[in-house]
Amino acid sequence: MKIGVCSNVRGDLPWREALEYFASKGIQCVEVGVGGYPGKDHCDADVLLNDEAAYAEWKKALDDTGITVSGFSCHSNPVHPNKEFAAESDKAMRDAVLMAEKYGIHNIECFSGCPGDFEGAKYPNWVTCPWPNDFGEILDYQWNEVLIPYWKNFVKFAKEHGVTQIGLEMHPGFCVYNTQTLLKLREAVGPEIGCNFDPSHIIWQGMDPVTVIRALKDAIFHVHAKDTRIDENNTRLNGVLDTKSYADEINRSWIFRSCGYGNDRLYWNDIISNLRMVGYDKVMCIEHEDSLMSLDEGLDKAVACMKDTVIKDEKLTNARWI
């Protein structure tokens, strides 16, 4: 298992400088943003897919630093009711597929998206309860008329270009946000739909990462290493659904933390051990969003935690008791 990072954490640096910075910390691979919310600071697909000299220079920076790409990310909302925004999101996702094809990997990472509540809606509508009955009607429209048809079409395009693993991050605010909704879309669309497993969103919703890992098994295509700390006092007062600013840390029910600052090393050891037990042995890709730490210190803390917890060697297969 390798240690990776979402490269947009150093989107302020040119591509080669960012890779050199990551390599100096012992990071082995990067998830590269191709558009959407992560931006495209390190991967302008309009250039790299059409200018072979530019792509060769981009690829050489990877080769020179010994870093590889673990996936191309395009986290956005391709089913947004704003047609212009949806089209931009869809383009970023298709660019990610084409970049994966060009680079030679078979996976991308993204969100499922969330439609509005009817064809003429202005904003997405994330439904979180079954009653009043209007919500059930909204879900029926979102899933059967928008979400499933979109993803069937997108998977067809992805497969035509060699991408067979589309890792959806289970993120509140989007239709796929927990185990059940991930598996529901996978069943409706096909095994190309899987998970970009991010424990931080699992934790604050009250799910147990290990339980989810064992349920998803080979549907886990990529993993983010990001932690969450639950504030028990604030949660007892207001619950976990929290719309306060991420900068208002002392009053929030939970905040994102660097790995090891939300939960202890044993917690992360269990996550990594269970990932290996279900057959995932690729990368722990650090996503730094700890608002209590600087960029550099937060990344250092997360890397140190991952260096202590990732299992690097092959499984023991020749012991006499196996």
Describe the structure using short key phrases.
322 residues; alpha/beta; TIM Barrel; eight-stranded parallel barrel; 15% strand; globular
- Report the strand count: 10
CATH superfamily label: Divalent-metal-dependent TIM barrel enzymes
Tell me the β content. Answer: 5-15%
CATH level 1 name: Alpha Beta
Largest sheet: 8 strands, parallel, barrel
Number of helices: 11
Helix and strand succession?
A: EHEHHEHEHEHEHHEEHEHEH
Instruction: Give the overall shape.
Output: globular
Lateral arrangement of strands in the main beta sheet: 1-2-3-4-5-6-7-10
Radius of gyration: 20 Å
CATH architecture: Alpha-Beta Barrel
The tally of domains stands at 1
Helix fraction bin = 40-55%
How many angstroms separate the termini? 22 Å
Report the uncertain regions: none
Mean model confidence by pLDDT: 96
| CATH fold type | TIM Barrel
The SS-based structural class is alpha/beta
Please tell me about this protein's structure.
The chain is an alpha/beta fold and 322 residues long. The chain has one domain: Divalent-metal-dependent TIM barrel enzymes (TIM Barrel, Alpha-Beta Barrel). The chain is 42% helix and 15% strand. The protein has helices at residues 15-24, 45-48, 52-65, 83-103, 134-160, 179-189, 199-204, 209-216, 232-238, 265-277, 295-309; strands at residues 2-6, 29-33, 68-73, 107-110, 165-168, 193-197, 220-225, 227-230, 254-257, 283-286. It has an eight-stranded parallel barrel. The protein has a two-stranded antiparallel ribbon with strand order 8-9. β3, α4 and β4 (107-110) form a beta-alpha-beta unit. α8 (209-216) packs parallel to α10. It is globular and about 55 Å long. The model has no long low-confidence stretch (mean pLDDT 96).
